[in-house]
Amino acid sequence: MTVVSTPQLSARPSAGSLERPPAASAGVIEARDVSKSYGSARFAKTVIRDCSFTIASGKLTVMIGPSGCGKSTLIRLLAGFERPNSGTISIGGKSVTEPGRDRLVLFQESALFPWMTTYDNIMFGPRARAERGVEPRRRAEFLLDKVGLGAFRRRYPTQLSGGMQRRAELARAMINEPRVMILDEPFRGLDAMTKKLMQEYYANLYEETRRTTFFVTTDIDEAIFLADQILVMTNVPTKVRAVIDVNLPRPRRLEDVIENDDANQIKMQVLSLLHEEAMKSFAHGSKAAADFIDAYSKRVRKPS
Amino acid sequence: MKESAFAGDMNVALAQGPTAVLAKPERGPGRLESSAYRMAQWLRSPRPYLMLIGFALFLGFWYLTVEVWKLPRFSQMPGPTAVITEWINPDPIYGLSLYSPEYYQHIWVSTRRVLIAFLLATATGVPLGLLLGWSLRFKEYVFPVFELLRPIPPLAWVPLAIIMFHGSETPIIFLTFLASFYATTLNTMLGVESIDVSFVRAAYCLGAKRRQVFWHVIVPGAMPFIFTGLQISVGVAWFSLVAGEMVSGQYGLGYLINTSYTMVQYPTMVIGMITLGIVGYVTSAAVRVLGNYLMQWRARELAMGAEA
């Protein structure tokens, strides 16, 4: 089992016409010995323990782990809504203490403001920062076209389909030109077809902009298709179990990844790691974990 | 409108039956055009006719019990024919009908009182409710007192209102204000608390400051609850207005009902009651229409839900 645990720092040239090329060391997320627990001392439940990882600039890093392993907690820490009990998180060399526009977090739930049209939703960031003039409007127009919602600018979110809502949210995030995009299971809850299309769409978007991205998922195929690097997390309390580089050529297509030997190799590797992690909590007698093992062990056996 | 694959989204949206009306996203159908359409739809549905049948049944029951069967319980009650003939009589027996200017004076005085009390309650209740929902500390100071005062019915305030305020007009407005104020404040607070935390998070992520979150997320997010509160508020305003008018005052529908009772002018009393019903309904509907106008995003949301 090849586990590469020291990710290289590398910045690729930006290809997006709209995007500013990130500086050499910009947009790096660094977590150092982060721990987080909830509840008071005696009944404290530690969700994250001594978790350290580095996310390289201009790369798409996917975090995958058993469900309920504290991924969402980690996201809230990265977003700055909560503080770790110990350890530090820094983005671009700056310690994270509160929500900021250097990182854009897209949470699981669609959070488009239902009282605003698509256009107003996208313009929320620039307006909140009182950016005036033609420039933000030009960017909004550009992004509306980019996510294919030009004709839907005056629709309200509830009038858009699930996939369209996700794209509108991506546009609303990208107009802020964050250094880092953090996406927490963004395609969860979409139907299978839309999900595939969104994955391909998102992969294209990433390949154009090469914006540092931290992507959380429980879907292993999604992880391999999108990632430059996969962080496999342990069960609760969470930390990084393994870092796996995915060196599949870009641009990728879903069909290619399915038939690619390297991809399948990685899939096996990740699955067996996840299997082990799930096994641990099974030893603790968790029903959820038992189901999880069932589902995964079937999938692990199938390719061999 | 359910899920559709994104590559074909636009075409699918254009092809879908009910949404085809909205197919040109740039310019929806004109407001007049669409309300005429809705009116025609309404007339074609069974709803207006069921409504008419409902009214007919009610009037028929009233007519039968009072004028045909003459049940003992209803012996003192004026029948519908007596009330209606009195109501449309140019020369009313008891001095009040659609033709007497006094009738409209009663309506106007009551409406004015409700309007003043409602506006006062909205101007104070909405900001208070927003603060209660927004600041936990503020809520801890204020809410227990609020909850203690709220169950006191307006009628219990009558003596104090008369002692506190001079004249007959201000006590009535105060009493009317009270019930409205509680309804508006409480609903506004619940509205703020109902806002999904992910909206607030998203706003902070997008670089909004606390102030902007308040104005662009909290206020519009609470709007549906606020308007529910305002509709209740108008309703209870009429409720406590009549209580106030029966105690003091010189004009108004409550006063009219009470005096025609003491002067044994029963048809006039019933005219006053029915008028209250109608005026109360109209004010409530006006608030609803205003709410729908201000929250078009929500109207569309509901309409889409109905079509899907």
Task: Give the proportion of residues in helices of chain B.
Answer: over 70%
CATH architecture of the domain at 29-102 and 178-301 in chain A: 3-Layer(aba) Sandwich
Structural class of chain A: alpha/beta
The CATH class label of the largest domain in chain B is: Mainly Alpha
CATH topology tier name of the largest domain in chain B:
MetI-like fold
Number of strands of chain A: 10
Please report which band the strand proportion of chain A falls in: under 5%, 5-15%, 15-25%, 25-35%, 35-45% or over 45%.
15-25%
Overall mean pLDDT of chain A stands at 79
- CATH class membership of the domain at 29-102 and 178-301 in chain A: Alpha Beta
- Regions of chain A with pLDDT < 50 over 5+ consecutive residues? 1-27
Q: Look at the structure and name the CATH superfamily of the domain at 29-102 and 178-301 in chain A.
A: P-loop containing nucleotide triphosphate hydrolases
Oligomer: heterodimer
Radius of gyration of chain B: 25 Å
pLDDT averaged over residues of chain B? 84
Q: How many strands of chain B?
A: 0
User: How large is the count of helical segments of chain B?
Assistant: 13
CATH superfamily of the largest domain in chain B: MetI-like
List the chains of the largest interface with their residue counts: A-B, 44 and 38 residues
Give the strand content of chain B: under 5%
Compact overview of the structure:
The complex is a heterodimer of chains A (304) and B (308). Chain A has helices at 71-79, 118-122, 124-128, 134-146, 162-174, 192-209, 220-226, 254-259, 261-283, 287-301, and strands at 29-38, 45-55, 60-64, 86-91, 94-95, 103-106, 180-184, 212-217, 229-233, 240-245. Chain A is of the alpha/beta class and 304 residues long.
